[in-house]
Amino acid sequence: MATDVLTDVEIDQLLSQAESRLREKVGQLSTVATEDEISLESNVAKSKARKPFPKLRHGLDGAGYLKDDNGVAQIDPKALTASAQQDTSTSLPPVEFPQKSKKINDQSSAGPDWFGLPKTDVTPQLKRDLQLIEMRSVLDPHRHYKKNNRKGKIPTFSQTGTVIEGPTEYFSSRINKKDRAKTFVEEAMNTERQNGRFKRKYGEIQAAKTSGKKEHYKKVLAKRKRP
C-alpha cells in the first residue's frame, strides 16, 4: 500500500488552514459571550450592594503567624507568644541568695563559731538521758555536781558523742564489755543492781513512815489475833 509523502509547501498550507479555522472558532465564542452579557445586563435588574461581614474580636495581633522567607512560608515564633512572655523567656530570673535567719529556731546549726554544732534531734531516748543528767546528784549523792539552772529545758544545739579511750588507758580506764551500757538509763539500772542503794533507801523510808499511827496499830491487832 503506497503512502503519499507531503512536501514542505503542503504542510505549511495545512497549518495555515488549521490556524484560520481556530481563529474563526474563537471569534464565534467571544461574540456569544458578549451577547449573553448584554442580555443579562438588559433583562436583570442590578442587585443591591451587599453589606460587609462584621469583624470578629479575636484579640490577636494584626501581624500574621506566617512570614515569607524567600518564597517559603514559615511560622513566626515571636507571634506565637505575648510580649510579656517574651521578656521572661529571653531573660534569666534574678538569683536570690538565702538570707540567714535571725531566729535561733530557724537555724540548722550554731554557726562556724561553734564549729557547725547541729540542731538538737529530740528523741524519747535523748529526753530520758537529759533527765538522768539533771538528776545525777540523786544517783550519786556523795559526789558534788555543779548546780543546774536549766530544769527541763532541752538545748537548741547539741550533739551526742562517744568517749574513746587512749592506748595508755586501755587497762586502767576501760570498762569491761559486759558492764557497758548503750544509754544512761541502762547504766543507772546496772549500778542499782550492783549496790542496791535505792532499794535499801526505799525500805528505810517506808519503815520510818510506817513506825506509828495506823500501821503500828495493825501490827498490834495482828499479834492479838494469833492463836
UniProtKB/TrEMBL annotation:
Pfam families: Fcf2 (PF08698). GO terms for cellular component: nucleolus. PANTHER family: DEOXYNUCLEOTIDYLTRANSFERASE TERMINAL-INTERACTING PROTEIN 2. Residues 215-227 have a biased composition (Basic residues). This is Fcf2 pre-rRNA processing C-terminal domain-containing protein. It comes from the Eukaryota. Residues 82-92 have a biased composition (Polar residues). It is found in: Nucleus, Nucleolus. Residues 107-201 form the Fcf2 pre-rRNA processing C-terminal domain. Residues 79-119, 207-227 are annotated as: Disordered. GO terms for biological process: RNA processing. One of its GO terms (molecular function) is RNA binding. Keywords: Nucleus. The keyword Electron transport does not apply.
